[in-house]
Amino acid sequence: MIFNQYFYHPDLSQTVVTLSAEESEHCVRALRHRAGDQVLLTDGRGSVATAVIIADNPKACMVELTEVREANDKGKFRLHLAVAPTKNADRIEWLVEKCVEVGVESVSFIICEHSERKRVNLDRLNRIAISALKQCQTSWLPPMEEIVFEDFVRKFQGQKVDKYIAWCDDENTRQLADEVFKHEDIVLLIGPEGDFSPAEIQMAREYNYLEIKLGHRRLRTETAGLYGCMAVAFKSQII
Is residue 190 within 8 Å of 230, Cβ to Cβ? Predict the structure, then answer.
């Protein structure tokens, strides 16, 4: 019998792998798997493996891979979400969880002029992302980084990517949900609760970011981030 619960291991190139202490605890103690049970592993990079437990150690569970395959659960478009961290860490953690479930490609936490939080705990956010990946059985774990606004905006110069900046401009009527994307890669900037500064908006314009609206309401940062992920996911036909 193959259990449908995913476990995470970053390298599926070996025949035998040892799960991390956290994954081993979950597999052996929490879910009570034993030697001989078949389980599923993902590397977070699009591969899924069928494996058999050969040592049910709750601190170092060993499994033997019997098949590795591509999951083919990616959509047509790849979203790189750049979002300013919220003052309340719980809200950004919630956003990471939901973005992974929806299928975001990458997440950057941008430090802006009006940011209320200047640092994020990437280790904790990565653990939350892994948990969400396993829960929703996706094979993609988005890389995450912390970066200042100016450096991020410059990253995609000359690349084939559709770039957007969402901010509260009542005169702008261009909606992300109505966009016809020209490229497979999409970048979306979401600002802090105090929004982007005029200088940041001007800089984004200079680097050819299109100003965009996310619906017809003023959304909190984490809600705006999820809205953007959902809009791209629907166009990707993965939801």
Answer: no
Neighbours of 74 (CB within 10 A): 16
- Give burial (CB, 10 Å; 0-12/13-18/19+) of 89: middle
Four-CA torsion 197, 116, 103, 179, nearest 10 degrees: -20
pLDDT at 74: 78
Q: How far apart are CA 217 and CA 196, in angstroms?
A: 17
Query: Which pTM value belongs to this model?
Result: 0.90
pLDDT tens readout for residues 133-189: 999 888 999 999 999 999 999 999 989 999 999 987 777 788 999 999 999 999 999
Which 3 state secondary structure label does DSSP give 101?
A: helix
E strand residue ranges, the chain: 2-8, 16-18, 38-42, 47-55, 62-70, 78-83, 106-111, 144-148, 162-166, 185-190, 210-212
Task: Judge whether 45 and 38 are in contact, CB under 8 Å.
Answer: no
Which pLDDT does position 38 carry in this prediction?
A: 94
pLDDT digits (tens, 9 = 90+) for 29-72: 999 999 999 999 999 999 999 999 999 999 999 999 999 999 87
What's 206-220 look like in SS3?
Answer: HCCCEEEECCCCCCC
- The residue assigned the tokens 């991390």 is 20
Rounded-to-integer distance, Cα 86 and Cα 105, Å: 20
CA distance to 16, 87, 184, per residue, from 92 (Å)? 36, 9, 26
